[in-house]
TrEMBL record:
A UniProt-annotated Pfam family: Cons_hypoth95
UniProt xrefs under Gene3D superfamilies: Vaccinia Virus protein VP39
Top-level division of the source organism's lineage: Bacteria
UniProt keyword list: Methyltransferase, Transferase
Presence of the UniProt keyword Transferase in the record: yes
GO molecular function ontology, one term from the record: 16S rRNA (guanine(966)-N(2))-methyltransferase activity
Protein name: 16S rRNA (Guanine(966)-N(2))-methyltransferase RsmD
């Protein structure tokens, strides 16, 4: 597993042993960031200079890829101890300590945000209906900016009902389905 593009291109990332953490594959991350960068609803500003939240962060691959491509700051949320060790090591290896924060907790218990994020990655364990619950908790704590892009990775065939959120794209990649949603609010 490595960073695909940007200033950290080629940097190898570590993952904890076992199957508790399921990092997003390099080819899926490449497809996701290509879509964000080139879609009519996306573009460079979907990533560059954005405040990003990487929920269910695991190794931090999604958030670190965003930082590599010009995001301003990423808040990583992860509760698994082994994943947290790998996440912190990956942040340090990329020298992104000053552009990141790690919240070692369940995403349902995040504290109030100082400033909302314009890009949110959610890659929870499949089949548990965690995306809607995470979005509700993040909304309540002020983490989701109006018209923010929400990227949710779910299991293939897993339903995702998000009333009020506009689905902009859906792509299947083997066992994973990526969905990009826009939060309610005015697009600036």
């Amino acid at each position: 597993m490595r960073i695909i593009a940007g200033r950290h291109r080629g940097r190898k990332l570590i993952a904890p042993a076992g199957d508790a953490t399921r990092p997003t594959a390099d080819r899926v991350r490449q497809a996701l960031f290509d879509m964000l960068w080139h879609a009519p609803w996306g573009g460079r500003m979907a990533i560059q200079d954005q405040l990003v939240l990487d929920g269910f962060a695991g190794t931090g691959a999604l958030g670190l890829e965003a930082l590599s491509r010009g995001a301003d700051h990423v808040t990583f949320v992860e509760k698994d101890a082994a994943a947290l060790a790998a996440l912190r090591a990956n942040i340090a290896a990329c020298r992104e300590d000053s552009h990141s924060a790690v919240l070692a907790m369940d995403i349902a218990r995040v504290p109030r945000a100082m400033v909302p994020c314009g890009l949110v990655f959610l890659d929870p364990p499949y089949g548990q209906g965690l995306v809607p619950r995470a979005v509700a908790a993040l909304e309540a704590a002020g983490w989701i900016a109006p018209a923010a892009l929400i990227v949710a990775e779910t299991g293939a065939g897993e339903a995702l009902a998000m009333p009020g959120y506009e689905e902009l794209a859906e792509r299947s990649h083997g066992a994973a389905t990526l969905r990009v949603l826009r939060a309610p609010g005015v697009v600036c």
